[in-house]
């Protein structure tokens, strides 16, 4: 089955408080396409909210960065995540790692659990796929939050 996936060329990078913007841009430039926009947000003195939003010319750079996790610069660990558009999910889901989801469905005779599991496995490695008859839903848990991000990006094209 060959599926067409919608992707984003934007990246959210957290943990940049002790790293200057030029170093961050230089580091992420090595992953393929050119950086087209870069915005850092540094809310000092607490250091609790220092992050950057980076847009690349191509989504292939974002894919390469996510494939090569974890990332660090000068021994400072960075959290990287595909930046999802605001219209596909909540603010929390845009910025936090969400590795599980619920699929609600009015179960019919045509419902095929194996087909559904096969479809969702195209997004990543499933750790848990469990049908909850009481709440008429399926819980799907992945080993990586990027699988759920890609599902959010593609929720309206399949």
Commentary on this structure:
The radius of gyration is 18 Å and the shape is elongated. It is built from 5 helices and 8 strands, in the order E-H-E-E-H-E-E-H-E-H-E-E-H. The longest helix is centred in the C-terminal third of the chain and has 10 residues. The strands form 2 sheets. A 5-stranded antiparallel β-sheet has the order 2-3-1-5-4, sandwiched between helices. By secondary structure, it is of the alpha+beta class. The chain starts with 9 loop residues before the first strand and ends with a helix.
Layout of helices and strands, plus pairs?
Elements: E1 10-14, H1 21-29, E2 35-42, E3 50-56, H2 59-67, E4 71-73, E5 76-82, H3 91-95, E6 100-104, H4 113-121, E7 126-132, E8 137-142, H5 145-154
Antiparallel strand pairs: 1-3, 1-5, 2-3, 4-5, 6-8, 7-8
């Amino acid at each position: 089955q060959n599926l067409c996936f919608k992707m984003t060329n934007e990246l959210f990078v957290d943990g940049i408080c002790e790293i200057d913007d030029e170093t961050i841009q230089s580091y992420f430039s090595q992953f393929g396409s050119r950086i087209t926009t870069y915005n850092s947000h540094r809310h000092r003195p607490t250091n609790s909210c220092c992050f950057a939003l980076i847009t690349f010319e191509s989504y292939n750079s974002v894919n390469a960065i996510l494939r090569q996790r974890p990332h660090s610069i000068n021994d400072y660990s960075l959290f990287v995540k595909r930046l999802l558009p605001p219209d596909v999910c909540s603010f929390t889901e845009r910025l936090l790692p969400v590795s599980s989801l619920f699929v609600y469905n009015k179960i019919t005779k045509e419902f095929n659990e194996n087909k559904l599991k096969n479809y969702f496995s195209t997004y990543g490695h499933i750790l848990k796929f469990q049908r909850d008859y009481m709440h008429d839903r399926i819980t799907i848990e992945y080993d990586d939050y990027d699988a759920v991000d890609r599902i959010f990006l593609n929720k309206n094209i399949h």
